[in-house]
Amino acid sequence: MSGDDQSKNENSNEGFSFVKSEEEILEFWNSKNIFKKSLDKTRAGKPYIFYDGPPFATGLPHHGHLVGSILKDAVPRYWTMKGRFVERRFGWDCHGLPIEHEIDKKLGMSAVDAVEKLGIKGYNDECRSIVQRYTSEWQKTISRIGRWVDFENDYKTMDTSFMESVWWVFKELWKKDLIYQGTRVMPFSTALGTVLSNFEAGQNYQDVQDPAITVMFKLQDEEAYIAAWTTTPWTLPSNLCLCAGADIDYVKIKDADKDIEFYMAKALVPNFEKKRNLSILSEHKGSEFLGKKYLPLFPYFKDREKDGAFQILNDGYVTVEAGTGFVHIAPGFGEDDNRVMKEAGLKEVFACPVNDQGEFTNEVPDYAGRYVKEADKDIIKRLKAEDKLYEQSVLVHSYPFCYRSDTPLIYKSIPSWYVRVEKIKEDLITSNNQIRWVPEHLKDGRFGKWLEGARDWSISRNRIWGTPLPIWKNESNGKFICMGSVEELAKYTGKTLTDLHRESVDPLEFKVDGEEGSYKRITEVLDCWFESGSMPYAQLHYPFENQDVFKDGFPAEFIAEGLDQTRGWFYTLTVLSSALFNKPAFSNVIVNGIVNAEDGKKMSKRLKNYTQPDLLMDKFGADALRLYLINSGLVRAEDQRFADNGVKDMVRRALLPWYNSFKFFHTYAKVDGWNCQENFKVGENITDRWILSNLQTLKKNIATEMESYRLYNVVPALFTFIEDLTNWYIRLNRSRFWGDGLSDDKCAAYSTLYTCIKELSTAMAPFSPFLSEHVYLELLEFDPKKAEQEESVHLNSYPMPNEKLINPTLEDAMDRMQQIILLGRQKRNQVQIKTKTPLRTLTIIHQDQALLDEIKKLEDYIQTELNIKSVEYSTDETKYIKLFAKPNSRVLGKRLGKEFGKYMGLIQKLDGQALAKLEEVGVLELAGQKFDADDILVFREAKEGTQALSNR
Fold it and tell me: Residue 809, class by beta-carbon neighbours within 10 Å (0-12 exposed, 13-18 middle, 19+ buried)?
C-alpha cells in the first residue's frame, strides 16, 4: 500500500477497514456470548483475583480512564487464556464530595441550604438520581475499546450490602483501638465545607502568588521588636504565641532609617541589609527568648494572655531557610503551631475564628463574614497604618487546592474521627515490601516515602451523602457504641434496615439498661476513600457472605490505576488490609502516568486540545489505541502527551503489516487450495526454521513480560516480529509461493506462514483483541476440521513456546544477515549504484569464524538481495580496512596534562593490529600508561580500491 493511499484511508487496506471489522467483531462477541463462554470455560480453574477500582459515573470516561481500562483488560485476558478464572466486575463510586458538589451546582445552593429546604432524604434522593448519570456512556466506551467486564453484576458503594461491610471494617478497627476522636489542624475545603485527608490535599498542588510580609511584634519588657514572617496574613488576628529555635543564633538589629531595634536570626540578616541601613547590636541564642512576653498584634484574643498567650516558645521545627527565624503561632490554623502550643502546656490557649465557609466569625468583628484570603489586603493595610508592617513582597509557591472544587484549601483545626495510621506504620511498610510495583521505583520511592511519613487519617466528613459513621453516643455519660452490622443495630433499636443512609439511621435512638440518657447517632459520614479502601471486602459483602471466596482470593493478584492513587486508593487499600489482616491487599500493581494533551497542557473541553476517545476509535480503531497506550511511557508511570498521530502510527507500524502478511497468505493459499490438515509440511528451509524460532522466542518473551507485569515490553517485541515476518521472511520467500501446484517446499512455506500468523493472533489476543479475532476467524477457512476448533481466538489457551524450535545461533545469524543486507543497500545508495547493477564481490568481516560459518548458510539470500556475484569471508579486518586512532582529548587532556602532546603522537602512530587488539581486550599499555577503549577513539576507512561500511 502506498503512502498516498494510506493517508487517504488511515484504517483500511484494499477495502478492509479496521474500524468496520472491529464493529463486526463486537457484534460477534455479543451475539455468541464469547465473554461469558470464556468465563464458563475457566470456571473450574484456579481463581485469578483482580480488583477494579471504582470510578464516579458523574463524568464521561476520558483518556486517563482508557489507559487503566486497557491494562485491566489485557492482563485478565492473558490469565484467562492461561486457564485461570478471572471474574471481572465493574464497580461504581457513588458517595462523597464529587456527587454532592454536582448536586450543589445543580440546585444552585450549598448542601447546608439544600438540606434545610429538602431535608436529608430529599437531598440524598437528588444525589441518588445522578449517581449513574453516564452509566450507558461508560458501558459504550468501555465495550468499544474491547474491554470485557461484567456490568450486570457490578457493585456500587451505595448498596446496602456494600455499606454494611464498610461498617464491619470500621468496627474491626474500633475493636483494635485504631479509631479515635480528636481535634487536629487538617486541610479544609471552604468551597465544600469539609475536612480533607492529607493524601487528598496532596492531589492538586498549584503555583500561586501569596503576600509575604514581615511583621513587628513589640516586646513587653524592652523597646524592641520581634520580626516574624508569614505568607498567610489572615492568620495574624489569631496569633497567640511566637516561636524561636533554641539553638539558632539571633541578633539584635538597629534599623537607622526606621529608628527601631528588633531581633531576627543572624543567618537571615543578609536578606534584609541589602535594602536597609542595618547594624548589629548584640548576639543571642534562641533559648534566651523562651518565655519572653510581647504585646498582641490584634486585640481580639487579648484575654488569653492570662492563660499563657503572647509569649515566645522554643521548638526544633523553626529553621533559617527563609523569613526571620521567628515563627508566628496560630494554633487554630497550623499543625506545628498546634503541636508546639500543646507541648508547651498551652493546650487550652486556642483560637479558630473561621467558619466552614472560610469566613471570619464574630470573634474577629472587624472582618466578620469576610472570606479569609480576601481579607489579606485589608489586614496588611491595617498593619501598615499601625506601623507594624516592616516588609511586604509577593511569593510564588506551590499551594494545595481542593481536588474537586479547584479552590485553595486552608488549614484549620477541626474535630474529626481518625484512624491511627501512625500506630501501624511499620505494618504498612511490611505490606509494601510484599508488593511488586511496576515501575519498581515507586515501591521505595513515591509510595514508600509516603508510607514513611504517613499521618493519622481523618475519616469523618460533615456531609450528607455517604456511609454514616456507625457510632451512637450517649450525651448524658459521653459513652459511645459502635455498630458493625445491620443485625447488631437491630439488636439495639429493634429495627432491621434495608438502607443505611442518613435518612434511615439518624432517627434511630435507643437506651441501654442501667444508663441514663439515650444513644443518638453522631452526624458525620465516612470519607468515601474509606469505602473504596474497603472494596475487597465490601464488593463480596464479606464477612456476611462469600467467606471462602474472599479468603481464597486475598490478597488480589493484580490492580492497576494512575500515579495519583499512590496517595489515594493504593494507600487506603494498604492501610485497611494491614490493619485488618496484616498483609497487603494486592500483590502486583501497574501504575500509569497522567495523560496530557499534545500541547502539554491538561486535556480541556474548553481548550479543545484533544480528540474524544470515541472519535479516535471511529478513525483509527480500538486496537491501534490500545497498542499506542500500552507502548507509551504511561504504563511506566510517566506522564505522556497524547498524540493522535501516535495512534495512527500503530496502524502503520503494526496493524497494516500484520494484516498484509495475513492477506498475502490468504490470497495465495486460497488459489492453491492449501489447507492445514492435508497439506501441512515441515521443511528444512533455513528461513522457515528461523521465523519459527523467532515466533517461539516472541511467545516466550511475552509470557516473561506479562508474568512480570511489564506490558511496555510487549509491543516493541511485536514490532520486531512483524518486521521480520513481513519485510524479511515473506520478502525472501515470495518465489516459493509462486508457480503451479503444491510442492513439498511450497506447502512447507504455507505451513510456516500459517503457523506464524495463527499463533501471532493468539499471542496478541490480549493486546489487540479485534484484529486477533478477525485473523483467527478467517484462518478457519483453511482448516477442514474447523468445527473442532474454538469459535473464538479468546477461547484458546495462550500459546506456549516450543523450546525445541528455538535456535539462538540461527536467530543471531539471521540478525547479522539483515545487518549485512542493510549495510549493503546503504553503501549502494552512498556510491549511487542501483541494485539492478550486479557487483563482483562482497567481503564479510568478523572476528568470530563460527558466526561467519552460520552466515555462509544464508549466502544465497545475501547474493539475491544485494545482487552480488560472489561472497567472501574474513576474520582479518586489516586486509581490507585501514584502522587509525585519535586520543579522546576530552578525557585524556585533563588526565595527562602536559604529557598529552607526547601521547597524542604515540596514539596516532598505532597500527591496525594494535587497535584491533585494543578493541578485543579493552586495554592497551603505551609508554608506561594504560589506556582503555574510552581513551582512544578508533576510526576506519576502506583501503584503496575498496568500498566499505561498518556497523560499529
Answer: exposed
